[in-house]
Amino acid sequence: MRKQLPDLAVTGAVALVVLGPLLLGSGFWLVGDMVFVPDQPWKPAWLGLDGALPRAVPMDALVSLASYVIPGALVQKALLLGGFLAGGLGVARLVREQAWFARAAAITLFCWNPWVHERLLIGQWAILLGYLLLPWVALAALRLRRDPRDPGNLAPAAIVLVLSGVCSPSSGVMAVGVLAVLGLTRDRRGWWRVALVAVVANLPWLVPALTADAVRVSTDGVFAGFAARAESGAGTLASLLSLGGIWKTSILAGERTSAVLVLLSCLLSIAALGGLWRGAPDRVRWLGLGGAALVLALLPTVGPGAALLEGLGSAVPGVALLRDSHRFLAPLGLVLAVGVAHAVTLVRAQVRPGRGALWSGVALLVVAPVLLLPSLAWGGGGEIQRSSYPRAWADVADIVGPDDVTVVLPWAGSYRGFDWNHRRAVLDPAPRFLPGTVLVDDSVRLTDIVVPPEDPRVVAVSRALDQADPAAALREQGVRWVLVEEGMGAVDTPDAPVRYDAGGLTLLDLAADGPVATGETDVRPGMARWQEILVAFGHGLAFLLLLVAVTWILRPGSNGRHTT
User: Who's near 177: CB < 8 A, 6+ residues apart?
Assistant: First the structure.
């Protein structure tokens, strides 16, 4: 335990410096896709029972359950802080044979890099948590490879695969890839066990994705639109090699636009890869993992790569869920973290009397990630400020019923810039704040293309809003409420009585002027019984797998055998 104290200290310090404004104050971080609310109501949609693509299944279900016990602001703090602690301590355990300063270098590089900065500022907190679980996936893979015929060695792998799949579909896919590259051996008899565990662990999102046959997923231009970008004159490859290059250039750190700093970051990556090559016992596997991640992130940017992926997405619609290929650069961060620990150890081995100056090289490798990216400190250099919801949001939530359908205006994309949130773009909180079914235009507006809606219910609402009498058309579709969010420009609203108007929100009651359809409509589609059974079965199997794996590890006499 004493050996782990430096790891905990370094990880805690990194987490505090990054998350300090959130941890030390009240309110929420609301930015990009990062949306937390004070009390997230329970909905079948959180389990994928609404027929929509399962982008946050089952993570939204867990957040909803947690917010019944503790306030949503504390849920956000706990998840982000817990994720950073898990990531730092996990990567330190992965290189535990190294000295404390080498482990510190691994922690710093893994938790403080452009990939983390960009995912945090784009608000993809669940994908960030999946990344921070990767060291534990690697630990489970190394244990599995030691004796693949022992079924008990699958228990740690099952746990981390389930947790990764909970974070997001892409996190689940990445975890399976890391486990396969680092854990599988030439003995193919164990492959089917790993494959079965991997599939079961990801059933909570796989089953809803496969049964949502009414969903339209556009692939036209999306892979190119979400492809990695060159942040500076150093080029796209240099950005990716240094763990940057996200497609959303508006959230880039200022230092990442400097070719000099990007190239210096590349030197750090090269030093880490050199340390991996010279010091790691499994260097081929580690380098193969890092190379695969780099190629996958680079693919849409090279020649016909985007067209190839679009063609694949047209044939297999679910592939479009993975359109942001830059996120799959995450395993390279793990590879570089392991490599920099070995690089530090190699430099330390050269320190002899008269060569004490090499200690400065050791120190530089430890702090280099921070020096090269100071903008990650204190909430992205102060970019992410805390916010609190106006009272009006809770008032509207008290009016809307759990069986009601609400349409949110303006009908122009799903991101909002509220005054109370410092005009920072954030995914509309209404679907998570209000009970019932809440529909927002889910089209995505990029710089040069607009990705059309993928939810057929949204398409039906769009048709209704285009009618001569949109209020009547919406009632025919089963819509009870129209919520107008003010401050986003002029909005054409249906003609209906105002039920609530305060705090930047106006709630229109369509039922006041006529009956609202209660049966199945395009906006309120029914889900076949067999689909509900399959989705529930998928969740049940994954939970059972997690329960069996935890029980196996915690059984009497297993403590000594289940260390990795």
Answer: 289, 292, 331
39: three-class secondary structure by DSSP: coil
Largest CA distance in the chain: 89
Report how far residue 42's alpha carbon sits from residue 426's, in angstroms, rounded to the nearest whole number: 21
* 427, 440 Cβ separation under 8 angstroms: no
Please list the alpha-helical segments (H only) found in 52-153: 59-67, 72-94, 100-111, 114-121, 125-132, 134-146
Q: Exposed (0-12), middle (13-18) or buried (19+): which is 263, by Cβ within 10 Å?
A: middle
Residue type, 142: L
CA 94 to chain centroid: 23
Confidence class for position 560, pLDDT limits 50, 70, 90: very low
Tokens (6 digits) for 384: 């992410």
**293 vs 308: CA distance, rounded Å:** 18
Cα separations (Å) of 275 from 101, 340, 409, 470, 506?
15, 6, 54, 64, 59
Cα distances from 46 to residues 54, 208, 444, in angstroms, run: 8, 11, 21
Give the residue among 285, 75, 49, 26 at the shortest CA–CA distance from 178: 285
pTM for the full model?
0.96
Matching residue, tokens 């008269």: 354
Within 10 angstroms of residue 254's Cβ, the number of other Cβ atoms is 10
> How far is 267 from 276, CA to CA, in rounded Å?
14
pLDDT exceeds cutoff 90 at 428? yes
What's the one-letter identity of residue 37?
V
Q: How many CB atoms lie within 10 A of CB 284?
A: 10
Q: Quick: pLDDT tens for 461-488.
A: 999 999 999 999 999 999 999 999 999 8
Six-digit token string for 248: 């959303």
How far apart are alpha carbons 460 and 178 in whole angstroms? 41
Residue of 268, 289, 275 lying closest to 335 (CA atoms) = 289
Task: Give the residue carrying structure tokens 């529909």.
Answer: 439
Give the number of C-alpha atoms closer than 13 A to the C-alpha of residue 11, restricted to the C-beta side. 25
Euclidean distance between CA atoms 152 and 555, whole angstroms = 11
Q: Cβ(237)–Cβ(269) under 8 Å? A: no
Q: What do you get for the CA distance between the two ends of the chain, in Å?
A: 15
Cα atoms in the Cβ-side hemisphere of radius 13 Å centred on 363:
5
Summarize pLDDT for 209-225 with one digit per residue, the tens. Answer: 888 765 666 667 778 88
Q: Mind giving me the DSSP string for 420-437?
A: GGTT--EE-SHHHHSSSE
Residue in 205, 127, 124, 137 with CA at minimum distance from that of residue 177: 137
Alpha-carbon distance of 64 to 66, in angstroms, equals 5
- Rounded distance between C-alpha atoms, residue 261 and residue 228, angstroms: 18
How many whole angstroms separate alpha carbon 409 and alpha carbon 258? 40
SS3 84: helix
